[in-house]
Amino acid sequence: MAEDMYVPLQATTLRSEEMTETERFFEFKLDSGEPLGHEPGQFAEVSIPGIGEAPISISSSSTRSDTFEMVVRNVGNVSNGMHQLSKGDKIGIRGPFGKGFPVEEDMKGKDLLFICGGIGLVPVRSAIQHVLDNRSDYGSISILFGAKSPSERLFVDELAEWKEDDKIDCFMETVDKGDESWAGNVGLITTCIPKVDHDISNTKVIICGPPVMYKFVLIELEKLGFSHDDIFVSLERRMKCGVGLCGHCQINGYYVCQDGPVFKYSDIEDEKGAI
Ligand SMILES: Cc1cc2nc3c(=O)[nH]c(=O)nc-3n(C[C@H](O)[C@H](O)[C@H](O)COP(=O)(O)OP(=O)(O)OC[C@H]3O[C@@H](n4cnc5c(N)ncnc54)[C@H](O)[C@@H]3O)c2cc1C
Ligand code: FES
Fold first, then answer.
1. Of 93, 209, 243, 256, which has the highest C-beta tally within 10 A?
2. β-bridge pairing 254-255 and 250-251
């Protein structure tokens, strides 16, 4: 991180590739040559000169490379500016910021159940890569991924690898609505949860997806008897400073940029508007 957290570090675009109709994949490297030094689930503020700044999750694990990867949905000024980036173009980076998935302190030795919906796979992928690269530190690994349609699936090559990877004990994918190209599961991601062979006394659950998904996934986990202490959710709020000063991202007493974006569910379940 830069000495002054308000001063962006310069980074260079190594790859900029179309992923879906609305999402683009990027690989960046800091011009200093230093790794970003992020933990799984953290984010960075990405700035495009002359346009602005937006918080974007870091999608790769620092166990893989000194570069870092992001996936951006084109929704507004900064994300559209990012979609115009080509190899060699410069961006500004502040961060990494926030509390990520507790892969070291809470998850070691535990079975892990990752539940990702749509673009929620982006931050969770960094945790999945981390645990696969430190496989012996964890119990069983189960990954559930749901997308609205086959054309909205992200990281399709990596999903195919995970399906075949014998380091992953259970991998299930589903789409809300299939098409002629799709021979897999059709249905909401909640339908996959009871199909996993859970040892609920030893499992930590990681959830990230669109807001509507959390409520129904949490109901399903409750039915199976999971403790709220064993569930981690990654939340998204509008942000400005990214460092707990402006209050833009506040949920009552919590700043999502600093206390999150990853929270233990039991810590925020009573906070109105959190989920
Ligand atoms: C921790 C974190 C991680 C994130 N990770 C990713 C990621 O990995 N990939 C990704 O694509 N996105 C990610 N986002 C979301 C991203 O930061 C936002 O979509 C951001 O607003 C994009 O900036 P923009 O300038 O492109 O769009 P904006 O110009 O900010 O507009 C985005 C959308 O929000 C609406 N909007 C603008 N201002 C407001 C407002 N004040 N209140 C309500 N709605 C408003 C706009 O109408 C538009 O639909 C993340 C957000 C957070 C907080
Ligand atoms: S974004 Fe400013 S306090 Fe969180």
1. 256
2. antiparallel
